[in-house]
Amino acid sequence: MTITKVYDANVYVNNGSKHGQASEVTCPNITAMMTDYAPLGMQGSMELFNGFDKMESTIKWTYPDNEAQKAFADFMTPVDIMVRSSKAVYDNGGIQSEQPIVITMRGYSKQHNIGSFKPKEDVEVESSLSINYLKQEIDGEVIVEIDVINNIYKVGGRDLLATRRQNLGL
Q: How far does Cα 155 stand from its chain's mean position?
């Protein structure tokens, strides 16, 4: 039996490390949009995959540096976010390995939160993004990759929309 644990992470904004500046990152949930299908002669109805619902991410900051603040204040330019972590794998002999986890996201800032200032309390700032690109890699293996604008959906390296892009002439 093996046990895996993930602790801690580092956030990069437009390729710049923000180590120690973020207190929490919420990565997007991938939610399929389903279309009802209930034709004549079928004994029931079913739902079929028809794309993805919008993806969102939030970052809670202890207080971001000026470069991050400017990136999230610009609603017209996409922001590149990378979250890096490490997955420790244990067995009855202790830790056996550590594997990198890399989440890559690109999206547009939805809000520039300047903060709430209180005496003797940390200022927390939250940034939110509308995500249009997401890739999850664990130990060098791409688990899922979604590029909404370019009509790309890959799971485990398998391009699930390749035929559709070809049929559409993309």
A: 15
